[in-house]
Amino acid sequence: MATIISIINYKGGTGKTTTALNFGAALAKKRKKVLLLDFDSQCNLTLSKGIREPEKHIGNVLIRKASVEDSMLKLANFHLVPSTHNLLDYEFNISNEPGREFIAKEVLAEVKDKFDYIIIDCPPSLGLLSINSLVAADYFIVPMQTENFAFIGLDSILNATEKVKMRMNPNLELAGILMAKFTPRTKFSKAVISNIMADERLKDKLFDSYVRQDISLMESPAFGQTVFEYAPRSRGARDYRNFANEFLKKYGKKEKKN
Amino acid sequence: MAKKKRKISDIKSALLSNTSFIKNTEKEKKTEKHENNSTPEKLPDNVIEIDKILLSRIKILANYYQKDYQEIVGEALHHYLRIKKLDVDEALKNIVVGDDEE
Fold first, then answer.
1. Which ipTM did the prediction report?
2. What percent of chain A has pLDDT over 70?
C-alpha cells in the first residue's frame, strides 16, 4: 500500500514543486514505485517534465470522468498525473458536491496498491484541492525558506492541518519541515529555526537535511528534467538524495527480505 | 539612515507576533515553572531586584539606543550614586561645620 505525502505550504515559491519533483525522483532512484500528482493550476510540476496542455489530467479525475490509472503518464522513473490551467473550473465543479473533501482519498484508493509512494504537489492556497490532498494523505511535508512570509505560511498550514486532523483525517501526520533555498548563517535563519525548535510540538519535526540554493535546481525544470537527470553531481541532487534517505529512515516501510 | 542592527531575540519575537499556532512553548514552560515556585528566591546581599515593568522599559530604551540593557542599568546606577555622593559630601560638610561651631 502506498504512503501518500502532501507537499504543502500556504505561501508560493517555497520550493513545493521542486521538492515534489526531486524528492519523488530520489525515491524512484531507490527503486520505489512513485506516483506524482499535480494539484496546482499553474501546472509547474507538469511543465517541469516538459508536458504542455495534456489531454489527460487531474481535473477529469476529480470530476470522475477519468480514473487515476487512465490519466497518469509513465515517465522515465515515475508516473505523473498532470494538471491543467483550467483546474480551478474543475475545483468549482466539485465545490458543491457532498463529501467534496474526500474525493482525492476516494480516487487514490484505486491505485494505492500499485505504488510505494504517492506525492501530491499542492497549490499555494488552502482551498478545496489542498484540503483534499490533506484528507487523502498519511503525511505532509512543509518546504519553506527562512523568511517571514514562509514562516507565517507554515503557521497557517499547521492551523489548517490541526482542523483536518480533528474533523476528517485523524491519521494525518506532519512528516517534517524541510528548509529549502537555505542559507544557515544569517541571523534571520537562526531566528526562524530557533522559533521552530522552541515549540514543543515542532522541535522534532525539522528535517536534519536541508536543500541549499543551487542553480541546477532552477535550470533543470526548464529542460524538462529532474535535478538527477540534469546535474546528478550538483548540490541540489546531493541535498534531495540526503533528504530522501532521511525520510526513508524515519518513515520508510521495512523491505521484505526474500 | 543606517539600517538598525537587530538581535536574534528581536527577530524571534517579531516573527512570533504574526503566528497563532507556533509559540515559544519553552518560554511558557519556564514562566509556568517560575509562577509555580511559591517561595521567592532570596537574593544575595550585593544584588538588587529591578521592578519587572521598569526593566522591560529599560530594555526598550536599550534597544532604541542600540546598547545592552545592562549597560543602561549600569549608567543609571552610576548617575544615581554620583548624586548620592554629592549628598554625602554635603552632609559631611555640614557635620564638620556643625562640629566647628560647637
1. 0.72
2. 98
